[in-house]
Design brief:
Helix content: 40-55%
Organism: Bacillus timonensis
Shape: globular
CATH superfamily of the largest domain: Vaccinia Virus protein VP39
Protein name: Protein-glutamate O-methyltransferase CheR
Strand order of the largest sheet: 6-2-1-7-8-10-9
CATH class of the largest domain: Alpha Beta
GO molecular function, one term: S-adenosylmethionine-dependent methyltransferase activity
Pfam family, one: CheR_N
Keywords: Methyltransferase, Transferase
Strand content: 15-25%
CATH topology of the largest domain: Rossmann fold
Number of strands: 10
CATH architecture of the largest domain: 3-Layer(aba) Sandwich
Largest sheet: 7 strands, mixed
Order of helices and strands: HHHHHHEHEHEHEEEEHEEE
Number of domains: 2
Number of helices: 10
Length: about 290
């Protein structure tokens, strides 16, 4: 007859490596949250796993547990891991038809307001924030607008605040701008120095860049527009529900919510509180 210890040992040996890896990842995410308040525990598992394993390999470590030990004692490694978790895929006038629909369907509503507050949640390195500033400037609305651009990634926010981007991106950005209904020459909005461009300071004067964690932080104002595009796809269902609640409570009545092309308000508990104003471009108006 096997002893309890032998039975336990047999059970442990039968556990698969994937089960062990999942336990390690859960411990790492819990340690990250306890140590510095970054909460990635409700992010989509497969997405967060890929980023963790990438960092394990990049740091030349043998296990996820080794990565946990390193981030607890090495602040530079911690910053690198946070950078891996932040989804910094963006461009000027990304999805141009979204900005075209915003011009045609949202701008007329914004014209009726004496002042406008816009929240770019998950603004990354800021390209879409400057895109919105250009659009509002061309529509004569920028002077009465305040744009709050937030992200969890401090390094991405530094890039956003600088307004400096590689010159090789401008060809694509110019094409996007024209397809979005741009009125001028795109090059009017920046100057070139060496291999980078610097967007004019008139575009950033009404932008407030700040660190904000959608997972743990609360609302900080009431907004007429909230844009959070291609961020929610990286959250699990429970976290998506929590963030939709945050956005709903942060929007003024008849405020506009803009999501990414793979995201929707449907199948959430807030779908009945919005009216669809652009089905293809995922623009919704709060009506309840």
């Amino acid at each position: 007859m096997n002893t309890p210890f032998e039975n336990q040992s047999s059970y442990i040996e039968s556990r698969t490596s994937s089960e062990l890896e999942k336990i390690e990842i859960e411990l790492l995410l819990q340690g990250l949250y306890k140590w510095c308040g970054y909460d990635f525990r409700s992010y989509a598992y497969n997405s967060i796993r890929r980023r963790i394993l990438h960092r394990v390999e990049a740091e030349k470590l043998s296990s996820v547990t080794g990565l946990l030990e390193k981030i607890l004692h090495d602040s530079a490694c911690l910053r690198r891991l946070i950078g891996d978790f932040s989804i910094n895929v963006t461009e000027m006038f990304r999805d141009p038809l979204f900005f075209l629909d915003f011009r045609e369907k949202v701008v007329p509503l914004l014209r009726t307001y004496p002042s406008i507050r816009i929240w770019h949640a998950g603004c990354s390195t800021g390209e879409e924030v400057y895109s919105m500033a250009i659009l509002l400037l061309e529509e004569g609305l920028y002077e009465k607008t305040k744009i709050y651009a937030t992200d969890i990634d401090a390094e991405a926010l530094k890039v956003a605040k600088s307004g400096r981007y590689p010159i090789e991106n401008m060809k694509k950005y110019t094409k996007n701008y024209l397809q979005s209904g741009g009125h001028n020459a795109f090059s009017d909005y920046y100057t070139v120095k060496d291999s980078r461009v610097k967007f004019h300071s008139q575009l950033s004067k009404n932008i407030v860049f700040a660190q904000h964690n959608l997972v743990t932080d609360q609302s900080f104002n009431e907004f007429h527009v909230i844009l959070c595009r291609n961020v929610l796809i990286y959250f699990n269902k429970e976290l998506q529900k929590r963030v939709h609640k945050l956005f709903y409570e942060s929007l003024a009545m008849f405020g506009i919510l803009g999501l990414g092309d793979k995201e929707t308000i449907y199948y959430t508990d807030k779908q009945d509180f919005y009216e669809e104003i652009s089905p293809k471009q995922k623009l919704y108006k709060k009506v309840k």
